[in-house]
Amino acid sequence: MDERLAVVSGGGTGIGAAVARALVADGCSVLVIGRRADVLAAAAERIGAECGRPEAVRAVTADLTDPDQVGRVVEAVGGRPVDVLVNNAGGYLGGKTDTLAGTAAHWRANLDANVLTAVLLTEALRPALRRPGGRVILVSSIAAQRGGAGAYSAAKAALHGWAYDLAAQLGPEQITVNVVSPGYVTETEFFGDRMTPEGHARRVAATLVGRPGTPDDIAESVRYLVSPAAGYVTGQVLGVNGGSVLGR
Ligand SMILES: NC(=O)c1ccc[n+]([C@@H]2O[C@H](COP(=O)([O-])OP(=O)(O)OC[C@H]3O[C@@H](n4cnc5c(N)ncnc54)[C@H](OP(=O)(O)O)[C@@H]3O)[C@@H](O)[C@H]2O)c1
Protein backbone atom coordinates (compact mmCIF):
# COMPACT_ATOMS: atom_id res chain seq x y z
CA MET A 1 0.00 0.00 0.00
CA ASP A 2 1.17 3.58 -0.72
CA GLU A 3 2.33 5.77 2.13
CA ARG A 4 -0.60 7.64 3.68
CA LEU A 5 -0.57 11.37 2.94
CA ALA A 6 -1.40 13.83 5.72
CA VAL A 7 -1.82 17.61 5.59
CA VAL A 8 -1.29 19.50 8.85
CA SER A 9 -1.99 23.23 8.96
CA GLY A 10 0.11 25.15 11.46
CA GLY A 11 2.48 22.18 11.41
CA GLY A 12 5.59 24.29 11.96
CA THR A 13 5.09 24.92 15.67
CA GLY A 14 3.47 23.70 18.87
CA ILE A 15 0.56 21.30 18.58
CA GLY A 16 0.74 21.08 14.78
CA ALA A 17 4.42 20.11 14.85
CA ALA A 18 3.68 17.41 17.44
CA VAL A 19 0.84 16.09 15.26
CA ALA A 20 3.10 16.08 12.20
CA ARG A 21 5.79 14.18 14.12
CA ALA A 22 3.30 11.57 15.35
CA LEU A 23 1.98 11.03 11.83
CA VAL A 24 5.47 10.74 10.34
CA ALA A 25 6.34 8.22 13.07
CA ASP A 26 3.24 6.28 12.03
CA GLY A 27 4.50 6.10 8.44
CA CYS A 28 2.62 9.00 6.81
CA SER A 29 4.20 11.49 4.51
CA VAL A 30 3.17 14.91 5.77
CA LEU A 31 2.71 18.38 4.29
CA VAL A 32 3.08 21.08 6.94
CA ILE A 33 1.56 24.47 6.21
CA GLY A 34 2.12 27.91 7.71
CA ARG A 35 2.96 31.47 6.77
CA ARG A 36 6.65 31.51 7.83
CA ALA A 37 8.89 29.59 5.44
CA ASP A 38 11.89 29.52 7.80
CA VAL A 39 9.88 28.13 10.72
CA LEU A 40 8.33 25.45 8.50
CA ALA A 41 11.65 24.45 6.96
CA ALA A 42 13.25 24.07 10.40
CA ALA A 43 10.33 22.00 11.67
CA ALA A 44 10.31 19.78 8.58
CA GLU A 45 14.04 19.12 8.97
CA ARG A 46 13.79 18.45 12.71
CA ILE A 47 10.79 16.10 12.45
CA GLY A 48 12.28 14.21 9.49
CA ALA A 49 15.55 13.74 11.38
CA GLU A 50 13.87 12.71 14.66
CA CYS A 51 11.82 10.08 12.86
CA GLY A 52 14.68 8.91 10.64
CA ARG A 53 12.66 9.80 7.54
CA PRO A 54 14.12 13.06 6.19
CA GLU A 55 12.06 12.87 2.99
CA ALA A 56 8.73 12.41 4.80
CA VAL A 57 7.93 16.05 5.63
CA ARG A 58 7.40 18.77 3.04
CA ALA A 59 6.69 22.42 3.81
CA VAL A 60 4.13 24.56 1.98
CA THR A 61 4.16 28.26 2.77
CA ALA A 62 0.65 29.72 2.60
CA ASP A 63 -1.62 32.09 4.46
CA LEU A 64 -4.74 29.93 4.65
CA THR A 65 -7.02 32.94 5.03
CA ASP A 66 -6.20 33.78 1.39
CA PRO A 67 -8.06 31.61 -1.15
CA ASP A 68 -5.34 32.14 -3.76
CA GLN A 69 -2.59 30.88 -1.44
CA VAL A 70 -4.60 27.79 -0.47
CA GLY A 71 -4.10 26.69 -4.10
CA ARG A 72 -0.42 26.07 -3.26
CA VAL A 73 -1.46 23.22 -0.98
CA VAL A 74 -3.60 21.64 -3.70
CA GLU A 75 -0.62 21.89 -6.05
CA ALA A 76 1.70 20.26 -3.51
CA VAL A 77 -0.79 17.41 -3.01
CA GLY A 78 -0.50 16.90 -6.75
CA GLY A 79 -3.59 14.74 -7.27
CA ARG A 80 -2.70 12.13 -4.62
CA PRO A 81 -5.46 11.04 -2.22
CA VAL A 82 -5.30 12.85 1.11
CA ASP A 83 -5.72 10.35 3.94
CA VAL A 84 -5.56 12.81 6.83
CA LEU A 85 -6.35 16.52 7.03
CA VAL A 86 -5.64 18.22 10.35
CA ASN A 87 -6.95 21.78 10.49
CA ASN A 88 -4.83 23.06 13.35
CA ALA A 89 -3.80 26.57 12.24
CA GLY A 90 -5.28 29.34 14.33
CA GLY A 91 -4.83 31.37 17.44
CA TYR A 92 -6.10 34.20 19.59
CA LEU A 93 -5.87 37.53 17.78
CA GLY A 94 -5.85 40.50 20.16
CA GLY A 95 -6.01 44.17 19.23
CA LYS A 96 -9.58 44.87 20.37
CA THR A 97 -10.35 48.60 20.64
CA ASP A 98 -13.37 50.48 21.98
CA THR A 99 -14.51 51.59 18.53
CA LEU A 100 -16.98 49.65 16.42
CA ALA A 101 -14.45 49.57 13.62
CA GLY A 102 -11.93 48.04 16.03
CA THR A 103 -14.50 45.50 17.19
CA ALA A 104 -15.23 44.53 13.59
CA ALA A 105 -11.53 44.15 12.81
CA HIS A 106 -10.95 42.06 15.95
CA TRP A 107 -13.86 39.70 15.22
CA ARG A 108 -12.93 39.38 11.55
CA ALA A 109 -9.33 38.58 12.45
CA ASN A 110 -10.37 35.82 14.86
CA LEU A 111 -12.93 34.36 12.47
CA ASP A 112 -10.43 34.47 9.61
CA ALA A 113 -7.63 32.86 11.62
CA ASN A 114 -9.69 30.08 13.18
CA VAL A 115 -12.64 29.43 10.87
CA LEU A 116 -11.65 30.54 7.38
CA THR A 117 -8.27 28.78 7.53
CA ALA A 118 -10.05 25.48 8.19
CA VAL A 119 -12.96 26.05 5.80
CA LEU A 120 -10.81 27.08 2.82
CA LEU A 121 -8.27 24.28 3.27
CA THR A 122 -10.96 21.64 3.76
CA GLU A 123 -13.03 22.80 0.79
CA ALA A 124 -9.92 22.92 -1.40
CA LEU A 125 -8.94 19.38 -0.43
CA ARG A 126 -12.46 17.91 -0.15
CA PRO A 127 -12.34 16.30 -3.62
CA ALA A 128 -8.92 14.81 -2.84
CA LEU A 129 -9.90 13.16 0.49
CA ARG A 130 -9.43 9.40 0.36
CA ARG A 131 -12.70 7.58 -0.25
CA PRO A 132 -13.27 5.45 1.71
CA GLY A 133 -11.16 6.08 4.81
CA GLY A 134 -10.31 9.80 4.83
CA ARG A 135 -9.99 11.59 8.16
CA VAL A 136 -10.65 15.28 8.90
CA ILE A 137 -9.76 16.90 12.24
CA LEU A 138 -10.64 20.41 13.36
CA VAL A 139 -8.63 21.80 16.28
CA SER A 140 -10.94 23.86 18.47
CA SER A 141 -10.39 25.05 22.05
CA ILE A 142 -11.72 24.69 25.56
CA ALA A 143 -12.66 28.36 25.07
CA ALA A 144 -15.42 27.20 22.70
CA GLN A 145 -16.97 25.12 25.49
CA ARG A 146 -16.62 27.40 28.48
CA GLY A 147 -16.17 30.90 26.95
CA GLY A 148 -13.62 33.28 28.34
CA ALA A 149 -12.05 34.58 25.16
CA GLY A 150 -14.78 36.50 23.32
CA ALA A 151 -14.33 36.45 19.56
CA TYR A 152 -11.83 33.58 19.80
CA SER A 153 -14.29 31.47 21.82
CA ALA A 154 -17.01 32.21 19.28
CA ALA A 155 -14.78 31.44 16.32
CA LYS A 156 -13.74 28.08 17.74
CA ALA A 157 -17.36 27.25 18.60
CA ALA A 158 -18.28 27.89 14.96
CA LEU A 159 -16.06 24.95 14.01
CA HIS A 160 -18.24 22.58 16.03
CA GLY A 161 -21.46 23.26 14.13
CA TRP A 162 -19.64 23.10 10.83
CA ALA A 163 -17.99 19.79 11.82
CA TYR A 164 -21.41 18.21 12.36
CA ASP A 165 -22.48 19.19 8.82
CA LEU A 166 -19.21 17.99 7.30
CA ALA A 167 -19.49 14.69 9.17
CA ALA A 168 -23.00 14.22 7.77
CA GLN A 169 -21.93 15.09 4.24
CA LEU A 170 -18.81 12.90 4.21
CA GLY A 171 -20.04 10.00 6.34
CA PRO A 172 -21.62 8.10 3.44
CA GLU A 173 -18.18 8.07 1.80
CA GLN A 174 -16.63 6.59 4.98
CA ILE A 175 -14.76 9.80 5.77
CA THR A 176 -14.84 10.82 9.43
CA VAL A 177 -14.79 14.39 10.78
CA ASN A 178 -14.01 15.12 14.41
CA VAL A 179 -13.13 18.08 16.61
CA VAL A 180 -10.25 17.97 19.08
CA SER A 181 -10.63 20.62 21.76
CA PRO A 182 -7.42 21.28 23.71
CA GLY A 183 -7.31 22.81 27.17
CA TYR A 184 -4.28 24.70 28.41
CA VAL A 185 -1.20 23.60 26.44
CA THR A 186 2.31 24.96 26.97
CA GLU A 187 5.42 24.68 24.73
CA THR A 188 3.67 26.42 21.83
CA GLU A 189 3.62 29.97 20.48
CA PHE A 190 -0.06 30.39 21.35
CA PHE A 191 0.31 32.66 24.39
CA GLY A 192 3.33 34.60 23.11
CA ASP A 193 4.23 37.01 25.92
CA ARG A 194 0.67 37.07 27.32
CA MET A 195 1.13 34.38 29.98
CA THR A 196 1.90 35.35 33.59
CA PRO A 197 2.94 33.03 36.45
CA GLU A 198 -0.51 33.66 38.01
CA GLY A 199 -2.32 32.85 34.75
CA HIS A 200 -0.31 29.66 34.40
CA ALA A 201 -1.01 28.60 38.00
CA ARG A 202 -4.74 29.36 37.62
CA ARG A 203 -5.02 27.25 34.47
CA VAL A 204 -3.10 24.34 35.99
CA ALA A 205 -5.26 24.51 39.14
CA ALA A 206 -8.39 24.28 36.97
CA THR A 207 -7.33 20.82 35.74
CA LEU A 208 -8.06 17.62 37.63
CA VAL A 209 -4.60 16.24 36.90
CA GLY A 210 -2.62 19.20 38.19
CA ARG A 211 -0.52 19.92 35.13
CA PRO A 212 -0.63 21.79 31.84
CA GLY A 213 -1.10 19.88 28.61
CA THR A 214 1.73 19.27 26.16
CA PRO A 215 1.56 19.31 22.37
CA ASP A 216 2.08 15.54 22.51
CA ASP A 217 -1.08 15.15 24.64
CA ILE A 218 -3.07 16.66 21.79
CA ALA A 219 -1.13 14.83 19.08
CA GLU A 220 -1.94 11.47 20.68
CA SER A 221 -5.67 12.16 20.52
CA VAL A 222 -5.37 13.17 16.87
CA ARG A 223 -3.30 10.05 16.22
CA TYR A 224 -6.15 7.89 17.50
CA LEU A 225 -8.90 9.72 15.63
CA VAL A 226 -7.08 9.48 12.29
CA SER A 227 -6.20 5.82 12.75
CA PRO A 228 -8.15 2.98 11.11
CA ALA A 229 -9.24 2.03 14.66
CA ALA A 230 -11.44 5.15 14.85
CA GLY A 231 -13.56 4.48 11.77
CA TYR A 232 -16.79 4.45 13.81
CA VAL A 233 -16.09 7.78 15.54
CA THR A 234 -17.39 10.80 13.66
CA GLY A 235 -19.10 14.09 14.43
CA GLN A 236 -17.59 14.15 17.94
CA VAL A 237 -15.86 16.77 20.05
CA LEU A 238 -13.01 15.30 22.07
CA GLY A 239 -11.91 17.49 24.98
CA VAL A 240 -8.23 17.04 25.83
CA ASN A 241 -8.04 19.35 28.80
CA GLY A 242 -6.93 17.51 31.93
CA GLY A 243 -10.48 17.64 33.24
CA SER A 244 -10.82 21.42 33.19
CA VAL A 245 -14.20 21.04 31.46
CA LEU A 246 -16.16 17.85 32.14
CA GLY A 247 -18.15 15.79 29.68
CA ARG A 248 -18.82 18.21 26.84
N1 LIG B 1 -1.88 26.29 23.30
C1 LIG B 1 -3.08 26.23 23.83
O1 LIG B 1 -3.24 26.33 25.08
C2 LIG B 1 -4.30 25.99 22.96
C3 LIG B 1 -5.50 25.71 23.62
C4 LIG B 1 -6.65 25.47 22.85
C5 LIG B 1 -6.58 25.50 21.47
N2 LIG B 1 -5.40 25.79 20.85
C6 LIG B 1 -5.41 25.79 19.39
O2 LIG B 1 -4.46 24.86 18.91
C7 LIG B 1 -4.01 25.24 17.61
C8 LIG B 1 -2.48 25.22 17.60
O3 LIG B 1 -2.01 26.21 18.50
P1 LIG B 1 -0.63 26.14 19.27
O4 LIG B 1 -0.93 26.21 20.72
O5 LIG B 1 0.22 25.04 18.76
O6 LIG B 1 -0.03 27.57 18.90
P2 LIG B 1 1.01 28.04 17.77
O7 LIG B 1 2.36 27.48 18.09
O8 LIG B 1 0.86 29.52 17.71
O9 LIG B 1 0.47 27.37 16.44
C9 LIG B 1 -0.39 27.99 15.51
C10 LIG B 1 0.11 27.65 14.11
O10 LIG B 1 -0.82 28.09 13.13
C11 LIG B 1 -0.12 28.72 12.06
N3 LIG B 1 -1.03 29.70 11.48
C12 LIG B 1 -1.71 30.67 12.12
N4 LIG B 1 -2.43 31.40 11.25
C13 LIG B 1 -2.21 30.86 10.02
C14 LIG B 1 -2.66 31.19 8.72
N5 LIG B 1 -3.47 32.24 8.49
N6 LIG B 1 -2.25 30.43 7.68
C15 LIG B 1 -1.41 29.37 7.90
N7 LIG B 1 -0.95 29.03 9.11
C16 LIG B 1 -1.33 29.78 10.15
C17 LIG B 1 1.11 29.33 12.72
O11 LIG B 1 2.21 29.47 11.82
P3 LIG B 1 2.56 30.87 11.08
O12 LIG B 1 2.48 31.94 12.12
O13 LIG B 1 3.93 30.66 10.55
O14 LIG B 1 1.53 31.01 10.01
C18 LIG B 1 1.46 28.32 13.78
O15 LIG B 1 2.33 27.32 13.29
C19 LIG B 1 -4.62 26.63 17.34
O16 LIG B 1 -5.75 26.49 16.52
C20 LIG B 1 -5.01 27.11 18.74
O17 LIG B 1 -6.10 28.02 18.69
C21 LIG B 1 -4.25 26.02 21.55
Describe this structure in words.
With 248 residues, the chain is an alpha/beta fold. The protein has a single domain, classed as NAD(P)-binding Rossmann-like Domain (Rossmann fold). 44% of the residues lie in helices and 15% in strands. The chain has eight helices and seven strands. It has helices at residues 14-25, 37-50, 67-77, 100-125, 142-146, 150-170, 197-205, 215-225, and strands spanning 5-9, 29-34, 57-61, 84-87, 135-139, 176-182, 237-240. The chain has a seven-stranded parallel sheet with strand order 3-2-1-4-5-6-7, with helices on both faces. Strand 2 (29-34), helix 2 and strand 3 form a beta-alpha-beta unit. Helix 1 (14-25) runs parallel beside helix 2 (37-50), helix 3 packs parallel to helix 4 and helix 4 (100-125) packs parallel to helix 6 (150-170). 44% of the residues are buried. The mean pLDDT is 97. NADP nicotinamide-adenine-dinucleotide phosphate (NAP) is lined by residues 9-10, 12-16, 33-36, 39, 63-65, 88-91, 113, 117, 139, 141-142, 182, 184-185, 188-190. NADP nicotinamide-adenine-dinucleotide phosphate binds next to helix 1, strand 2 and helix 4.
Summary of the model, kept short:
This protein has 248 residues and is an alpha/beta fold. It has 8 helices and 7 strands, in the order E-H-E-H-E-H-E-H-E-H-H-E-H-H-E.
